[in-house]
Amino acid sequence: MAAPEERDLTQEQTEKLLQFQVVAETWFESLSHAANSHWLAVLHMDLTGIESMDQCRHTLEQHNWNIEAAVQDRLNEQEGVPSVFNPPPSRPLQVNTADHRIYSYVVSRPQPRGLLGWGYYLIMLPFRFTYYTILDIFRFALRFIRPDPRSRVTDPVGDIVSFMHSFEEKYGRAHPVFYLGTYSQALNDAKRELRFLLVYLHGDDHQDSDEFCRNTLCAPEVISLINTRMLFWACSTNKPEGYRVSQALRENTYPFLAMIMLKDRRMTVVGRLEGLIQPDDLINQLTFIMDANQTYLVSERLEREERNQTQVLRQQQDEAYLASLRADQEKERKKREERERKRRKEEEVQQQKLAEERRRRNLQEEKERKLECLPPEPSPDDPESVKIIFKLPNDSRVERRFHFSQSLTVIHDFLFSLKESPEKFQIEANFPRRVLPCLPSEEWPNPPTLQEAGLSHTEVLFVQDLTDE
């Protein structure tokens, strides 16, 4: 029997089929919407390791049921890097994946053609829904038995290096330069350098991944564009680090590319490319995305330069203020030192005055004591008396009589007791010229008497001032 001929549908039949497709898809969405929130909460529990369903629902509600935002936020906290979504006020890195202005380019497979194609699609639609629902239930149950090892990121850099080595073994070393760091580090570098970041998620089991890597990603013109105009981060979704990023970006199919840049002071996904895309088409799409968003980078560069200039100006002002403050502090220090020096000098002068006063008082007391201890003056008629005339340093003269038997110390004590005599002095005789040993010394432990000193009945002795010596 000959196969039936495929006939072109009339316009009325086509419209009815399209209406039927819309109704079927609406029915499919209505069935899945009721369980969507529950499955999102279960998925969030499995990906983040949170055991409380209420906490998962609360976290998803905070992120407007945006699973990639909630998961990325939790995973970044576990890794110890700043939160990507809903960060603290210190302005850590953000990635906005919920922007409705994201440019999306999807290379889809051909739609059904003809009556048989549409009929097969509509008939299989409920079966596909049932199949995927049962598959999800099976995967959910399997997670309790054997948790997905990809859900725990232990060595993110090792995942990147391992993927790069496997990529080079399979497709050669002619490829865009891979960013050798974690996804968070790539975001930070792209933000710091104000560059585009192209993220590639590799699906090892997808039928289009091999052709895309071999013919598109390794094309010389694609390599040149990526290496010169953006950072390139890639990883397999079979690796924990790639799986984590996959849960955050929520790709629909492979190959998957996402363009991320600093936009409105947040790292934002500005373009998504999904499906098998040819080299020329990829270059055009990437160029279009960059041209459409270049103004944001230019604006951010200008703002950053302005902030840097403001910061430099503020730093210069702070340095000038600190210099002025240090100068004032130095002046104040010198003033304190000068006041302290004057205070010490005044104290020293006062101490010297007190010491001088004590010395004079002690000297006066010593003079009075010496005067009281002097023996009485002999009478002029005493044959053993000696008349001595003393010439003092101030040219004044003092006369007194002493006894021959008295020691020269008595002469010294008499002169010492005089108010006009110096504090320290020696007594000299002229004929012969000599110094009288009036005080004990090594040569004269006991000073001699006036007779032993060879003094006559009348003598003139000179008092030599030794105070300054």
From TrEMBL:
Superkingdom classification of source: Eukaryota
The protein's name in its UniProt record: Fas associated factor family member 2
